[in-house]
Amino acid sequence: MNSDSPDLQFGPISSAAEGPLYEQIASAVAREIAARRLSPGDMLPSVRKLAADLLVSVITIKRAYEELERAGLIYSRQGIGAFVAENAAAHAGADALAEVKLALGAAIVAARRARLTEAQMFQLLRAMLKEGDQA
């Protein structure tokens, strides 16, 4: 078991983005687990450290960790910290289809933030698929 908490690298957490902050944080941690950048037994940053790093309240991080624990992705040990659960990758949907869905979901959120219409999103996807076929 790794006792050093990793530096989580996920996109900006913002009150301007879609969804509550705690959900954005929980989703970002779940993505890290699904992508296997966080492994079973890895210690997550302390609530206070992550709150300071993300410039959010400690309560927001606690709520995100509670959601992750409820989902079976992490577990907490009183006075020690939070850790990635042994079967977290399975729960996070680490199979290829789930990873694609997560990536597409993030792309849809970004496209909506950019105020693209559904037609524009499809057009962009088709163009990118066509480019990929030619590569």
Describe the structure.
There is one protein chain. The chain is mainly alpha-helical and 135 residues long. It has 2 domains: 21-92, Winged helix-like DNA-binding domain superfamily/Winged helix DNA-binding domain (Arc Repressor Mutant, subunit A); 96-134, no CATH class. It contains 6 helices and 2 strands. It has helices at residues 21-34, 47-54, 58-70, 88-92, 96-113, 118-134; strands at 74-77, 81-84. A two-stranded antiparallel ribbon has the order 1-2. A hairpin with a 3-residue loop joins β1 and β2. α1 crosses α3. It is globular.
Structure described in brief:
The chain is mainly alpha-helical and 135 residues long. It has helices at 21-34, 47-54, 58-70, 88-92, 96-113, 118-134; strands at residues 74-77, 81-84. It folds into 2 domains: 21-92, Arc Repressor Mutant, subunit A; 96-134, no CATH class.
